[in-house]
Amino acid sequence: MTQQPVATSNKLDAAVLKVAGVVVLGAIMSILDVTVVSVALPTFQNEFDASYARVAWTMTGYTLALATVIPLSGWAADRFGTKRLYMVALALFTIGSGLCATADSIGELIAWRVVQGLGGGMLMPLGMTIMTRAAGPHRIGRLMAVLGIPMLLGPIGGPILGGWLIDTASWHWIFLINLPIGVVALIYAQLALPKDNPEPSESFDFLGMLMLSPGLALFLYGVSSLPEAGTVRDNGVWLPMLVGAVLVVAFVFYSFRPQHPLLDLRLFRNRNLTIAAATLFVFIIAFMGAGLLFPSYFLQIRGESTLTAGLLMAPQGIGAMLTMPIAGMLADKVPVGRTVPFALVLIAAGFFTFTQVDPHTSYWLLCGSLFVMGLGMGGTMMPIMTSALKTLHAAEVARGSTLVNILQQIGGSVGAAVMSVILTSRLNGSEVIPGVTDPSGNPVSEADLAIGSQLRPELLQQFPVPPTLIERGLDFAAGSFATTFWVGFGLVLLTFIPAALLPRRREPSHLLDGEAGEGQRPTPVPIH
Asked: Is 464 helix (H, G, I), strand (E, B) or coil?
């Protein structure tokens, strides 16, 4: 397979855009699916008669699968070829989507979400590598802006699409919608991506896999079990966390020994990658963790339909849509250390509003705040990822994108678990209604009944209580959300510390270094 020449033009030409179309279509499926499911959680609670902590595993199981398979994708692409593996990932994700729609219980749905995640986990790191090599070093900022399209469509289209499908059809369609998209993506990938000619040159790090993948899965499983267990002392929480942490730490020490480890931690010697990864990690914990609760506030406190909740989330995506292309162009010309802190100020300003929410907070104020947060998000995510990859050598890009993706998944899981634990513990402090129990004989609290009545108004006929009690329960529940958002706001402020260390001077790209020098011939398959 001949090495494609890297163009020096700053514009993305037709050849690059054709490849980008495949990657963006695959990324849209995986990212859209996360945001679609986020608004469907209350529906799953009612459909399967399960607790919020239980149905949250439809998100957690997906994330666990992603974190497990991402480290394997680099070696697999080197062994089987980027095109083949990308198409396998698309097929696995599409098949998993169809199986999710057939689920008859919450346990089945969680299991099929894991199958989805095994495919989805390979789409982003493979896609980032394919596009980075196609665009070349002079256009990485613009490239990341293109790759950011799914991140725009996710917050805008996901909640709206999910809400519309649930309200007008059924929850099954939030998964069935992926089937035609998946078929189109597979055909497009077959036609647009160049033919594979893999030349595997590295042995598979089996020992590293036996430590890292199970270690990540066990640790995230323990963290994600916190909301349901309610305490870190529960055996289902601390034991998998401990075993997982031991395996991950063992891998960290081991990974510096083999020539080609499963995850190349030597890349953290690159200061730009390290600072960008730390900034992204803290930001993901804060923003993505609390971000999952925004739709829940509209659904559980304000009693909105899933479609309305999705529409109310749209300003965030619209704000990001306005700034992300600008940020992409600036990232090619201006050091990210001069732009990202200003974007973080916008996020913090918008986030602060949610620390003050109550059952009657103005929608104009909330939507305006989401719009401001979106403006900041568009100027944060892609420039940080550009900084992480821009100064790497060509052979390091795939390994660097794998590291970034792993940190994103861990940060998202930790953030979601932390925010869920805080919210659940606060809601558990609500006053119990004397003499009122659920069908299982458990006491019902004011907050539980208030939230339940917003989701299912018929509960007020089953549990006739004074309206003042419902109002008091809603006030308490809204205050619980506000307290949780305070934690997220604090973490956003914490992001300013690593962001202050981002490069403030323009540094040369090394993406072309080592392409054909030092006795090496061009490497057609960029993933290692």
From this structure: coil
Q: Among residues 99, 118, 114, 110, which one has the least CA distance to residue 41?
A: 110
Cα dist. 5→320, 409, 522 in Å? Answer: 32, 33, 10
End-to-end Cα spacing for the chain: 17
Q: Is the CB of residue 150 less than 8 Å from the CB of residue 24?
A: yes
SS3 434: strand
What's the CA angle centered on 284, arms 61 and 253, to 5 degrees?
Answer: 75
Q: Which three-class secondary structure state does DSSP give residue 443? A: strand
Q: What are phi and psi for residue 526, nearest 5 degrees? A: -80, -5
State the number of CA atoms in the 13 A half-sphere of 183 facing the CB. Answer: 5
| Distance of alpha carbon 447 from alpha carbon 469, whole angstroms | 9
pLDDT digits (tens, 9 = 90+) for 15-53: 677 777 788 788 777 777 777 777 787 788 778 877 766
Q: Can you give the three-state secondary structure of 290-344, one letter per residue? A: HHCHHHHHHHHHCCCCHHHHHHHHHHHHHHHHHHHHHHHHHHCCCCHHHCHHHHH
Two tokens at 85? 């593996």
Task: Please name which of 135, 82, 63 lies closest in space to residue 332, comparing C-alpha atoms.
Answer: 135
Cβ 12 vs Cβ 139: under 8 Å: yes
Planar angle of CA 167, 171, 173, nearest 5 degrees: 95
Task: For residue range 55-99, list pLDDT tens digits in order.
Answer: 877 877 787 777 777 777 767 777 777 788 888 899 999 999 999
Closest CA to 119 of 29, 188, 59, 208: 29
Beta strand residue intervals within 108-208, DSSP E: none
**pTM, two decimal places:** 0.75
**Which residues does residue 122 pair with via DSSP β-bridges, in sequence order?**
none
Element (H, E) at 436: strand 432-437
